Amino acid sequence: MERAGLAAAGVARDVLSGRSSRVLVLAGPGNNGGDAFVLARWLASWFFDAAVVFHGDAAKLPRDAVAAHDAWRESGGKTLAEWPERSDFGLIVDGLFGIGLKRPAEGIHAQWISRASASGIPILALDVPSGLDADTGVAYAPTMRASATATFIALKPGLLTADGPDHCGDVSVHALELDATALLPPQGHRLDWATLSTALPDVLKRRRRNVHKGTFGTLAIVGGSDGMVGAAILAARAGALLGAGKVWLGLAASARPAVDMLQPELMLRDAEKVIENMPSAIVVGPGIGEADRARDLVRKALRLDVPAVVDADALNLIAEDDLLADALTSRSAPTAITPHPGEAGRLAKMTTTDVQADRLQTALKLADRFRAAVVLKGCGSIVAFADGRFAINASGGVGLASGGTGDVLAGMIGAFLAQGVAMPDALKTAVCLHGAAAEALVAGGVGPLGMTASEIAPSARRLINAARG
After folding, report:
1. Which of 165, 247, 334, 335 is most buried (most C-beta within 10 Å)?
2. How far apart are CA 288 and CA 293, in angstroms?
3. Alpha-carbon distance 237 to 250, whole Å?
């Protein structure tokens, strides 16, 4: 607790640079409150004006928190039972509730959360913002909207997915002189492009010169029924732009175009022919529809002994057809399914609300159920594997909330698989790069409002080539 409070006090000091030196510290009834008392004592020792608000009986605090409270009082600090009238604080510290909260805050604490969030004053949350479920990322009303979160020992999944990113602000991790990986080897980790871009799979670095188009594989895209040809084209274009040696676009539409005039490198063929010709990897589902022919195409695609990405309507067909579900589960080649929350709900026989209530566990259950890797798309997309490992993506943003961006992601994953990248690396690289490409577009003035799916793959190509070193 002493180390946690000191670490957070250092973050608070940085936030206060150039601002009013007055700090309002909200201390809760548990160990999070103890961290807050330690933080207040350190800030006061650095000549900040710290006002601590605490509601309750200090004697009922946990033992370590009692000691922190007593040390605060012995240092000359005082506690207030009510929110002070003054409003000239440079920072509010949220030390109300930590990782143990699994229900909405009530009473005076709920009032303080609402008041702090509406104050316009920067807020530093200790470990997790009060009201946020640290495991699921669900924000119980009310939940603190922090400007920054100092989390201790290791990241918590709820900081990275669902409502978490909207409430945490800038997240810093403080190990507190503990080796978290030695204490409990992590099953999951955070994906960020700054880190991933330094360790790209070798084939994506294009170091070898003695190569040809066959070196980088043939990607098949199967989808695009009547009225939804664009989805398959988006996936195919992404496959070409992210390095597949050849891209076959197998369209299910009754009247398919002869050529993609924007990307004439794509080879447009009948969907069945594309499957029969044995590509290096296949993406099935973008715009494929749910007609009988679509069902037959999905069945044939699942029989191929090549890496596969199963997306969009193919997932809806699998959700309602036990034979297709069995075909997916029994595949021996590397397989990924890429549902959005609605599709995940249909696959898991649960509501979309229930999926979003525990995104991580839903992704892990789907991976176990279908013996496949899973990308559960959304805020903090989750990459989950059948052995229980997972990763949560930290890149992206609201600009990706538009039609077709998922088709582009499927094509990117397929491109990496066609080039021989192992499934775990293909998924993590593509998911993180997809989000980073959107961030790069926003940084360049494109979006987030009005960003289109067609703009993602060219941005991703620029980023991955810049990362070659």
Report:
1. 247
2. 9
3. 13
